[in-house]
Automatic annotation (TrEMBL):
Main localisation: cytoplasm
GO cellular component: cytoplasm
Keywords: ATP-binding, Cytoplasm, Nucleotide-binding, Nucleotidyltransferase, Transferase, tRNA processing
Enzyme category, top tier: transferase
This protein's name: Threonylcarbamoyl-AMP synthase
Length: 184
């Protein structure tokens, strides 16, 4: 894919925009996790309550470092053995983590993706990106760019072209400290 697409997507994120992009299983909505107004806009588009929190995707551990606390080497190793890959882990969040990201929790869900489009997006943006399914609350997640556009239309600031990663359902979510599965 042309680097022009990644440049436009990153520019939209930096400007406080909401973008749609392909992930491992479904189309996602993303924005800059440090931009409160952008995150509030994304949540309003989905009709999703802030208290649930949002997942962050990244292309490296360094991009997640500003958001997560790592309680021990064993906890880190548990997650790191599955990354990059389609595994989301819940870690304690740092004090600096914005509450619009962690929601009503002292934890945050994060993933170092192996999906080439997600990785390139995070690299071009220069950090972790919010990743939540592209669908209004109560509707099925978008499985195509067309479906994401039908759901959100002009509310999207950019749609990053690309293909889904081949998973049949969204990534699993596990507690990094216990290993327990929170979502299959």
């Amino acid at each position: 894919m042309s680097s022009v697409h990644f440049r436009k997507a990153a520019r939209a994120l930096r400007a406080g925009g909401v973008i749609a992009y392909p992930t491992e299983a479904v189309w996602g909505l993303g924005t800059d996790p440090w931009n409160e107004r952008a995150c509030e806009r994304l949540l309003a588009m989905k009709d999703r309550s802030w208290d649930k929190g949002l997942i962050l995707v990244a292309s490296s551990a360094e991009q997640l470092a500003p958001f997560i606390e790592v309680p021990s080497n064993a906890v880190w190793k548990r997650a790191a053995l599955t990354w990059p890959g389609p595994n989301t882990w819940v870690f304690p969040c740092r004090e600096e983590t914005p509450m619009w990201i962690s929601g009503d929790h002292d934890t945050i869900a994060v993933r170092i993706s192996a999906h080439e489009t997600v990785r390139a997006l995070c690299e071009r943006f220069g950090g972790a990106v919010v990743s939540t399914s592209a669908n209004p609350a109560g509707r099925e997640p978008a499985l195509s760019a067309t479906q994401a556009r039908l759901y959100f239309g002009d509310e999207l600031d950019y749609v990053l072209p690309g293909a889904l990663g081949g998973l049949s359902k969204p990534t699993s979510i596990r507690d990094a400290q216990t290993g327990h599965i929170l979502r299959r």
